[in-house]
Protein backbone atom coordinates (compact mmCIF):
# COMPACT_ATOMS: atom_id res chain seq x y z
CA UNK A 1 0.00 0.00 0.00
CA UNK A 2 1.37 3.39 -0.98
CA UNK A 3 1.48 5.50 2.17
CA UNK A 4 2.91 8.67 0.61
CA UNK A 5 0.78 11.71 1.40
CA UNK A 6 -1.36 13.15 -1.39
CA UNK A 7 0.15 16.37 -2.60
CA UNK A 8 -2.07 19.43 -2.51
CA UNK A 9 -2.29 21.14 -5.85
CA UNK A 10 -2.46 24.83 -6.52
CA UNK A 11 -5.63 26.18 -8.08
CA UNK A 12 -3.88 27.29 -11.27
CA UNK A 13 -2.77 23.68 -11.89
CA UNK A 14 -6.40 22.59 -11.93
CA UNK A 15 -7.14 25.34 -14.43
CA UNK A 16 -4.23 24.15 -16.61
CA UNK A 17 -5.57 20.59 -16.57
CA UNK A 18 -9.07 21.66 -17.53
CA UNK A 19 -7.87 23.87 -20.35
CA UNK A 20 -5.57 21.13 -21.66
CA UNK A 21 -8.41 18.60 -21.60
CA UNK A 22 -10.53 20.93 -23.70
CA UNK A 23 -7.68 21.57 -26.14
CA UNK A 24 -7.01 17.83 -26.48
CA UNK A 25 -10.72 17.21 -27.02
CA UNK A 26 -10.58 19.54 -30.01
CA UNK A 27 -12.73 22.30 -28.54
CA UNK A 28 -10.00 24.75 -29.58
CA UNK A 29 -7.58 24.10 -32.40
CA UNK A 30 -4.37 25.76 -33.54
CA UNK A 31 -5.01 29.46 -34.12
CA UNK A 32 -8.17 29.59 -32.00
CA UNK A 33 -8.44 32.08 -29.16
CA UNK A 34 -9.28 30.88 -25.67
CA UNK A 35 -12.10 32.56 -23.74
CA UNK A 36 -11.28 35.84 -22.02
CA UNK A 37 -9.80 35.85 -18.53
CA UNK A 38 -13.16 36.99 -17.17
CA UNK A 39 -15.00 34.13 -18.89
CA UNK A 40 -12.49 31.60 -17.55
CA UNK A 41 -12.80 33.05 -14.05
CA UNK A 42 -16.58 32.70 -14.20
CA UNK A 43 -16.46 29.22 -15.72
CA UNK A 44 -14.11 27.78 -13.11
CA UNK A 45 -14.99 29.93 -10.13
CA UNK A 46 -11.43 31.09 -9.59
CA UNK A 47 -9.67 34.43 -9.31
CA UNK A 48 -7.73 36.29 -11.97
CA UNK A 49 -4.29 35.29 -10.54
CA UNK A 50 -5.08 31.58 -10.98
CA UNK A 51 -6.23 32.10 -14.56
CA UNK A 52 -3.22 34.23 -15.47
CA UNK A 53 -0.76 31.79 -13.91
CA UNK A 54 -2.42 28.92 -15.78
CA UNK A 55 -2.14 30.78 -19.08
CA UNK A 56 1.50 31.64 -18.38
CA UNK A 57 2.20 27.97 -17.66
CA UNK A 58 0.62 26.97 -20.98
CA UNK A 59 2.61 29.69 -22.75
CA UNK A 60 5.89 28.40 -21.28
CA UNK A 61 5.00 24.95 -22.60
CA UNK A 62 4.36 26.36 -26.07
CA UNK A 63 0.68 25.40 -25.98
CA UNK A 64 -0.68 28.94 -26.18
CA UNK A 65 0.66 32.32 -27.24
CA UNK A 66 -0.06 35.40 -25.19
CA UNK A 67 -0.06 38.81 -26.88
CA UNK A 68 -0.69 41.97 -24.88
CA UNK A 69 -4.25 43.16 -25.26
CA UNK A 70 -5.50 39.95 -26.88
CA UNK A 71 -6.90 36.66 -25.66
CA UNK A 72 -4.49 33.72 -25.46
CA UNK A 73 -4.29 31.78 -28.72
CA UNK A 74 -3.65 28.05 -29.16
CA UNK A 75 -0.45 27.32 -31.09
CA UNK A 76 1.45 24.24 -32.22
CA UNK A 77 4.75 23.86 -30.31
CA UNK A 78 7.82 23.79 -32.54
CA UNK A 79 10.69 21.36 -32.17
CA UNK A 80 12.98 24.28 -31.29
CA UNK A 81 10.71 25.42 -28.47
CA UNK A 82 10.25 21.95 -27.02
CA UNK A 83 13.99 21.29 -26.95
CA UNK A 84 14.71 24.77 -25.61
CA UNK A 85 12.58 23.90 -22.60
CA UNK A 86 15.09 21.28 -21.47
CA UNK A 87 18.15 23.42 -22.24
CA UNK A 88 18.44 24.93 -18.77
CA UNK A 89 18.33 21.54 -17.11
CA UNK A 90 20.83 20.08 -19.55
CA UNK A 91 23.36 22.88 -18.93
CA UNK A 92 22.94 22.51 -15.18
CA UNK A 93 23.48 18.76 -15.46
CA UNK A 94 26.72 19.29 -17.38
CA UNK A 95 27.95 21.75 -14.76
CA UNK A 96 27.06 19.50 -11.84
CA UNK A 97 28.25 16.26 -13.48
CA UNK A 98 31.07 17.08 -15.92
CA UNK A 99 31.43 13.39 -16.82
CA UNK A 100 28.09 13.75 -18.63
CA UNK A 101 29.92 15.82 -21.25
CA UNK A 102 31.43 12.61 -22.58
CA UNK A 103 27.97 11.11 -23.02
CA UNK A 104 26.82 14.27 -24.80
CA UNK A 105 29.80 14.07 -27.17
CA UNK A 106 29.00 10.43 -27.94
CA UNK A 107 25.36 11.29 -28.68
CA UNK A 108 26.40 14.20 -30.88
CA UNK A 109 28.94 12.06 -32.73
CA UNK A 110 26.32 9.39 -33.45
CA UNK A 111 23.72 11.93 -34.59
CA UNK A 112 25.86 14.20 -36.74
CA UNK A 113 27.82 11.52 -38.55
CA UNK A 114 24.47 10.02 -39.53
CA UNK A 115 23.15 13.41 -40.60
CA UNK A 116 26.22 13.98 -42.79
CA UNK A 117 25.56 10.66 -44.48
CA UNK A 118 21.92 11.64 -45.09
CA UNK A 119 22.95 15.10 -46.34
CA UNK A 120 25.34 13.59 -48.90
CA UNK A 121 22.54 11.33 -50.12
CA UNK A 122 19.74 13.89 -50.23
CA UNK A 123 21.33 17.31 -50.83
CA UNK A 124 19.97 19.27 -53.77
CA UNK A 125 21.98 21.89 -55.62
CA UNK A 126 20.17 24.55 -53.54
CA UNK A 127 21.11 22.72 -50.33
CA UNK A 128 24.75 22.67 -51.39
CA UNK A 129 24.62 26.40 -52.13
CA UNK A 130 23.20 27.18 -48.68
CA UNK A 131 25.81 25.02 -46.99
CA UNK A 132 28.53 26.76 -48.96
CA UNK A 133 27.14 30.13 -47.86
CA UNK A 134 27.29 28.97 -44.24
CA UNK A 135 30.92 27.94 -44.69
CA UNK A 136 31.82 31.26 -46.32
CA UNK A 137 30.08 33.21 -43.52
CA UNK A 138 31.93 31.13 -40.95
CA UNK A 139 35.27 31.88 -42.58
CA UNK A 140 34.43 35.59 -42.73
CA UNK A 141 33.87 35.71 -38.95
CA UNK A 142 37.42 34.80 -37.94
CA UNK A 143 38.02 38.17 -36.30
CA UNK A 144 35.12 37.85 -33.86
CA UNK A 145 35.08 34.74 -31.67
CA UNK A 146 31.48 35.10 -30.49
CA UNK A 147 30.27 35.33 -34.09
CA UNK A 148 32.66 32.56 -35.15
CA UNK A 149 31.20 30.14 -32.59
CA UNK A 150 27.63 30.97 -33.60
CA UNK A 151 28.38 30.46 -37.29
CA UNK A 152 30.08 27.19 -36.42
CA UNK A 153 26.77 26.05 -34.96
CA UNK A 154 24.86 27.34 -38.00
CA UNK A 155 27.05 25.24 -40.31
CA UNK A 156 26.22 22.10 -38.34
CA UNK A 157 22.56 23.07 -38.18
CA UNK A 158 22.38 23.56 -41.94
CA UNK A 159 23.59 20.00 -42.47
CA UNK A 160 20.75 18.81 -40.24
CA UNK A 161 18.26 20.95 -42.19
CA UNK A 162 19.12 19.01 -45.35
CA UNK A 163 17.64 15.89 -43.73
CA UNK A 164 14.17 17.41 -44.06
CA UNK A 165 13.33 16.44 -40.47
CA UNK A 166 12.67 19.60 -38.38
CA UNK A 167 13.59 17.82 -35.14
CA UNK A 168 17.21 17.22 -36.15
CA UNK A 169 18.24 20.89 -36.56
CA UNK A 170 16.73 21.71 -33.16
CA UNK A 171 18.62 18.87 -31.50
CA UNK A 172 21.91 19.75 -33.19
CA UNK A 173 21.65 23.39 -32.12
CA UNK A 174 20.69 22.39 -28.58
CA UNK A 175 23.58 19.97 -28.17
CA UNK A 176 25.99 22.56 -29.49
CA UNK A 177 24.71 25.23 -27.10
CA UNK A 178 24.59 22.91 -24.08
CA UNK A 179 28.31 22.26 -24.42
CA UNK A 180 29.19 25.80 -25.55
CA UNK A 181 31.02 26.71 -22.34
CA UNK A 182 33.38 23.78 -22.85
CA UNK A 183 33.55 24.32 -26.61
CA UNK A 184 34.71 27.95 -26.48
CA UNK A 185 37.79 27.05 -24.42
CA UNK A 186 38.83 24.83 -27.35
CA UNK A 187 38.11 27.45 -30.00
CA UNK A 188 40.19 30.03 -28.14
CA UNK A 189 43.34 27.92 -28.56
CA UNK A 190 45.64 29.78 -30.99
CA UNK A 191 45.11 28.50 -34.50
CA UNK A 192 42.17 26.26 -33.59
CA UNK A 193 39.82 28.37 -35.72
CA UNK A 194 41.76 27.42 -38.84
CA UNK A 195 41.57 23.76 -37.84
CA UNK A 196 37.79 24.04 -37.51
CA UNK A 197 37.46 25.75 -40.89
CA UNK A 198 39.64 23.13 -42.58
CA UNK A 199 37.47 20.38 -41.13
CA UNK A 200 34.27 22.13 -42.14
CA UNK A 201 35.62 22.51 -45.66
CA UNK A 202 36.33 18.79 -45.82
CA UNK A 203 32.79 18.04 -44.63
CA UNK A 204 31.30 20.44 -47.17
CA UNK A 205 33.32 19.00 -50.04
CA UNK A 206 32.25 15.45 -49.19
CA UNK A 207 28.59 16.42 -49.07
CA UNK A 208 28.92 18.43 -52.29
CA UNK A 209 30.49 15.36 -53.93
CA UNK A 210 27.50 13.30 -52.73
CA UNK A 211 29.88 10.87 -50.99
CA UNK A 212 28.07 9.57 -47.85
CA UNK A 213 31.02 7.58 -46.49
CA UNK A 214 33.47 10.47 -46.88
CA UNK A 215 30.98 12.91 -45.36
CA UNK A 216 30.37 10.71 -42.32
CA UNK A 217 34.10 10.17 -41.83
CA UNK A 218 34.84 13.88 -42.18
CA UNK A 219 32.27 14.70 -39.49
CA UNK A 220 33.57 11.88 -37.29
CA UNK A 221 37.11 13.23 -37.50
CA UNK A 222 35.88 16.77 -36.88
CA UNK A 223 33.95 15.92 -33.74
CA UNK A 224 36.61 13.66 -32.27
CA UNK A 225 39.39 16.05 -33.31
CA UNK A 226 41.49 13.15 -34.56
CA UNK A 227 43.96 15.30 -36.48
CA UNK A 228 47.38 16.23 -35.20
CA UNK A 229 46.76 19.97 -35.24
CA UNK A 230 43.90 19.66 -32.79
CA UNK A 231 45.93 17.54 -30.40
CA UNK A 232 48.62 20.22 -30.45
CA UNK A 233 46.06 22.83 -29.29
CA UNK A 234 44.17 20.65 -26.79
Write the layout of secondary structure elements.
Elements: H1 11-24, H2 37-44, H3 48-60, E1 64-65, E2 73-74, H4 79-84, H5 87-96, H6 100-122, H7 125-140, H8 145-162, H9 167-178, H10 180-187, H11 192-208, H12 212-224, H13 228-233
Antiparallel strand pairs: 1-2
Helix pairs in contact: 1-3, 2-3, 6-8, 6-9, 6-11, 6-12, 7-8, 7-11, 8-9, 11-12
The dominant shape is elongated
Main sheet: which strands, in order across?
1-2
Distance between the termini: 56 Å
Q: Tell how many strands the DSSP assignment holds.
A: 2
Number of helices: 13
Mean pLDDT: 84
Q: How big a fraction of the residues is strand?
A: under 5%
Rg, rounded, reads 23 Å
**Helix-residue proportion:** over 70%
Class from helix and strand fractions = mainly alpha
